[in-house]
Each structure stands twice: as structure tokens, then as C-alpha cells.
Design goal:
Strand order of the largest sheet of chain A: 6-7-8-3-9-10
Order of helices and strands of chain A: EEEHEEHEHHHEHEEEHHHH
Distance between the termini of chain B: 49 Å
Radius of gyration of chain A: 20 Å
Order of helices and strands of chain B: HHHHHEEHHHHH
CATH topology of chain A: Rossmann fold
Shape of chain B: flat
Strand content of chain A: 15-25%
CATH superfamily of chain A: P-loop containing nucleotide triphosphate hydrolases
Number of helices of chain B: 10
Oligomer: heterodimer
Number of helices of chain A: 10
């Protein structure tokens, strides 16, 4: 499989109030084409910094990041990197530029110098994919948080990226908004084969990911399938991460002596394990 | 409470004037302002009034709305009139103490008042019939033709677009902050002007800090979407002239010709321009 993102011995330091802070220690990670990778970590674990590093918004202090073979340190490649690996930020209000929905979606391809007729096509397709076509003439402030975030996703899609990084893209949404955005992202991953790097601190959101990477204080604490990672309940809780409620419940039951495996992720799975005959 | 504010004075109805290319309207307004200063007798002014009246009728905007803009500068018009009446030399018609009213003064004052009114209505007709976004687009295109300003055209219009985009967002935020302060017992209603102004400070400070943070995040999001200024940038909608724009330009040219021609009519001129 082709590597979408290759991170080699990455280190990132910055100065705050004349004090040097190391946000990322020595991090190496490969993300493959078409993968859905969930990155979780507590506040200050370096997960948002990682997103900005991959997009070339900030530069590594040490080590290298390759996005489809292009080094983010190479200034000639920076626009192509940003086109290939788009990023959706946390606050929907602060990433919408234009006053009309479809013009905002067009912002990316306009910057890339795409022909107007082609922009038209891409905007319509992108809005279709996030199911926001009927809102194309609206003003952004008339939309709900979830809708705005879907517009932000469409804005990235219109640049035709192969990989999208979601930097806590659902953190500011209400539960229904979160659900609609997440469903949209999963669909993109399955139907478009877009590589998804999903950064979050809600573990429930990444139980269906192909791989989960847990960051703690700028380093990878563990990684593996959701099942493998969520089986290590106590370790996760020691870095202030809450496992999904169902996983926690199963963990407690097991501790009390029930013969069920660790790393149960859904209600159905728990039911199956508790009542094997049903 | 701030949800549905309209920005600027755009009056959204269907009309031929609304549908014109924003560039056409900007050019017309510019030409109109300049040509008004060429009119020097009542025929010239009558032409100015006639052309503007024709546009207002075409624009489907109620007269009452059009004249609203004049209200704002009524005082300026009054001062101009008074000054003109009393200061222009000519045949004295009336003396009030040290002040004297002259015939030339009266004529001058009347023409001045008409000219100012036409200027204001002429320009506000443009903003009434063009949405702020279209106006921004039109200005960007127009600025690109002017040497010296050309290189800033895109940046200036991007700034305007972002300002327009964030006005409702910031209004909402101001509303939220105000409610939060009210919930903690802040009083925004009572007291004199000074006290009221002072009460605004606890709203403005968080609003300012918040908008700096927004600006920072927006800049990052724009960069992440490959924004690098106006070079090599394309547009979803390129502005294009159609038949009506051509007609509008012809009408503009006819207006210019007629008003300039009116200067040479053997009629009484306005005494002092």
C-alpha cells in the first residue's frame, strides 16, 4: 500500500514566554492511502500541532514529514502538499471565508487557479457529497454548526485532496451536529477512498477507525486497531482518556469476574458476549 | 436579535438596474458625479434630474426609500444654501442687518441644493441596487484597471469580503457577551451618555480579543486552503457584460454629450460655480 503520510523522527519545539516547550518529542508514524486513522490524546498531547505540521503551516524542529513523498520543508511543494492533504479545523465560523456558501466552497479551487467551468463542477460535486446542495445560496451565518462544518469539508473536497485531516472538527458541535459530520466523513472514506486522519478526544467517534493512535505528551503511547487499544482501559485512563462507556462497562464486568473479552466497542457486541445464546 | 440584519442599504427587488453588472453601475456613478459639475444652466440640471429620475423609475425602488439618503445630509445642504444666499455678491434684494440677500445668491443656492441632492441620490442609487458582495467584486475589477492601485485591488476586496462575512458573526458574539454581562447584573440601559459609553467597555474588550483570535485562525484556514493573494487566482463567477450593460453605457455616453452640449446654450448661467 502507498504511504499517504510518512512522519520520521519528528520533533517540534516552540517558545512561549521565553520558555521552550516541546510539543512533540520523537514521533514516527506512517499513514497509508485510504486508511481511516483516529488520533486521540488529552489536551496538550500534541495532536493539533501534528495536524499543522502535516499541512506545512508550521515546520518541524527536527525530523521530516513526507506527504505523498513531498517534504513539508520544501517551499516549492507547499501548495501541492496543502492541496493533497487538506485540513478541517475546529471552529466552523473561523474557516469560512466568503459570504455565500457556494462561493466559500469555491475558495480553494479559486486559489489553485482552476478554470471557472471546472470550479463550478467541483463546487456542485463537493456540495452534493456533503449533502448541502440545497443550501448553496445561503449565507454561512444562517446555518447550524454541523452544516457549517460540512461546508468547510466541501471547501476542502473541492480542492480534490487525497487525504483530509480533521483537527477536532466536531469539538464545537452539538451531539446531532457531531453525528451528521462524522457520518459524512465516514462516507467519504468508504466511497471516495479519501485517507482520513481524524484527530479528536471523543473516543466514541473512532471505534470504527482502521487504526487508533494514542498520543500522550508529544509521543505515541500506543497504536493498533480500536479493539486492541480500547482493551487497555487502565492505561488509557492513566493518561486522562475516557474509554467509551460500553467498553468501560465491559471492563468493569470483567473485573467482577464475568468471562468476557476486553475491548468491547458496541452495545451489540456486549449483548452477544453476555448472552451467547440470543 | 441581530440575526437578520441587512448590511449596507441594499434594497433587494427585481429590476433591470439591479441586474446590471456592478462595474457598469460604478462607472455610471463616477461619470454622473463628474458630469454634474459640468452643468452650468437650468437645462443641464434638468437633464441631470431627468436621467436620474429615469434610473429611479427603472430600479423599482420606492421614492421614499431613495430620498431617505438625502435626510442624512440635510444639514449640509442647509448650511450650503445659507452660505450661498448671504455671501454671493450681486444685486441686493433684501438687507437683514449686516447680511444681504442677492439675486445671484438665491439662484446659486438653489442650484447648489439641487446639485448636492442629485449627487447623494445618484450615489445611493448604486448602493441601493447593488449587493455589498457584487459591489466589492465590481470595485476589484475597476481597481485593476487603475495603475498604482492595481496591485492592491485583490487584497482590498478580500478585506472587504471578510469584513462583510464577519459582521453577523461578531454581532452575534456581541449579543452573547452582552447577555452574559446582563446575567451577572450589568446595566446597559440607564444613566447618561457617558455612563452608557463606559458600560460598553466590558463588551468591547472581549469582542476585540475574540476577533483577534478569529483573525488568527481564519488566516491559518485560508493558508491551508492554498490562499496566496491575487496572483493566478481564478473566480467561480467572472464578471461579464451583457446586452443591458452595453445599453447602459450608451445611455451614459448620451447623458455626458447632452450635458456638455447644454453648456453652450445661450441661456442664463449660474453666476458662480
Amino acid at each position: 500500500m502507498q504511504k499517504a503520510i510518512e512522519i520520521k523522527n519528528l520533533q517540534y519545539k516552540y517558545d512561549r514566554d521565553e520558555e521552550e516547550i516541546t510539543a512533540i518529542y520523537d514521533l514516527s508514524l506512517d499513514i497509508y492511502e485510504g486508511e481511516f486513522v483516529g488520533i486521540i490524546g488529552h489536551n496538550g498531547s500534541g495532536k493539533s500541532t501534528l495536524a499543522k505540521l502535516i499541512n506545512g503551516i508550521i515546520m518541524p524542529t527536527k525530523g521530516d514529514i513526507f506527504v505523498y513523498g513531498m517534504n513539508t520543508k520544501d517551499e516549492n511543494m507547499i501548495w501541492e502538499i496543502r492541496q493533497k492533504a487538506g485540513i478541517v479545523f475546529q471552529n466552523p465560523d473561523n474557516q469560512i471565508v466568503a459570504t455565500i456558501v457556494e462561493e466559500d466552497v469555491a475558495f480553494g479551487p479559486e486559489n489553485l487557479g482552476v478554470e471557472p467551468s471546472e470550479i463550478r463542477k467541483r463546487v456542485d460535486e463537493a456540495l452534493e457529497k456533503v449533502r448541502m446542495s440545497e443550501f448553496k445560496d445561503r449565507k454561512p451565518h444562517q446555518l447550524s454548526g454541523g452544516q457549517k462544518q460540512r461546508i468547510a469539508i466541501a471547501g476542502i473536497l473541492a480542492m480534490e485532496p487525497r487525504c483530509i485531516i480533521f483537527d477536532e472538527a466536531t469539538a464545537m458541535l452539538d451531539p446531532s451536529g457531531r453525528e451528521e459530520v462524522l457520518a459524512c466523513i465516514k462516507q467519504l472514506n468508504k466511497e471516495n477512498n479519501t485517507t482520513v486522519v481524524y484527530i479528536t478526544h471523543y473516543m466514541e467517534e473512532i471505534v470504527e477507525a482502521d487504526r487508533v493512535v494514542v498520543l500522550n505528551q508529544g509521543d505515541i503511547l500506543m497504536q493498533g486497531t480500536p479493539k486492541e487499544v480500547f482493551a487497555r482501559v487502565e492505561e488509557l485512563q492513566s493518561v486522562f482518556l475516557d474509554v467509551p462507556n460500553i467498553t468501560n462497562l465491559a471492563h468493569q464486568l470483567k473485573k467482577e469476574g464475568l468471562a468476557i473479552p476486553e475491548g468491547i466497542l458496541t452495545v451489540d457486541e456486549l449483548v452477544k458476549n453476555l448472552c451467547p445464546s440470543s | 436579535m441581530f440575526k437578520d440584519i441587512t448590511i449596507g442599504q441594499y434594497y433587494p427587488v427585481q429590476s433591470k438596474i439591479h441586474d446590471l453588472d456592478p462595474r457598469t453601475k460604478i462607472v455610471y456613478t463616477f461619470v454622473y458625479i463628474i458630469i454634474l459639475f459640468f452643468a452650468n444652466n437650468y437645462v443641464g440640471y434638468a437633464l441631470g434630474v431627468a436621467f436620474l429620475g429615469f434610473l429611479i423609475a427603472m430600479s423599482n425602488i420606492p421614492l421614499k426609500f431613495v430620498f431617505k439618503s438625502v435626510k442624512a445630509i440635510l444639514i449640509i445642504i442647509l448650511i450650503t444654501v445659507i452660505l450661498n444666499v448671504f455671501v454671493t455678491p450681486g444685486n441686493v434684494l433684501l438687507r437683514i442687518g449686516a447680511l444681504k440677500v442677492t439675486d445671484a445668491g438665491l439662484i446659486n443656492a438653489a442650484f447648489m441644493a439641487i446639485r448636492l441632492t442629485l449627487l447623494i441620490i445618484g450615489t445611493s442609487l448604486m448602493t441601493l441596487t447593488t449587493s455589498p458582495i457584487a459591489l466589492t467584486d465590481g470595485m476589484e475589477y475597476c481597481m485593476k484597471v487603475i495603475p498604482g492601485v492595481r496591485s492592491y485591488a485583490h487584497e482590498l476586496s478580500m478585506m472587504m469580503t471578510i469584513a462583510l462575512r464577519f459582521i453577523p458573526t461578531l454581532m452575534e458574539e456581541a449579543d452573547k457577551i452582552m447577555k452574559a454581562q446582563k446575567a451577572r447584573g450589568a446595566d446597559f440601559e440607564t444613566g447618561g451618555i457617558l455612563k452608557k459609553a463606559k458600560n460598553i467597555v466590558p463588551i468591547l474588550v472581549p469582542l476585540f480579543i475574540g476577533s483577534f483570535k478569529r483573525a488568527d485562525e481564519l488566516a491559518m484556514a485560508m493558508e491551508a486552503r492554498c490562499y496566496r493573494g491575487g496572483n493566478n487566482r481564478t473566480r467561480l463567477y467572472e464578471l461579464e457584460y451583457d446586452k443591458n450593460d452595453k445599453i447602459a453605457y450608451i445611455i451614459t455616453a448620451v447623458m455626458v454629450a447632452m450635458i456638455i452640449a447644454s453648456r453652450f446654450l445661450p441661456l442664463m448661467r449660474i453666476p458662480i460655480q
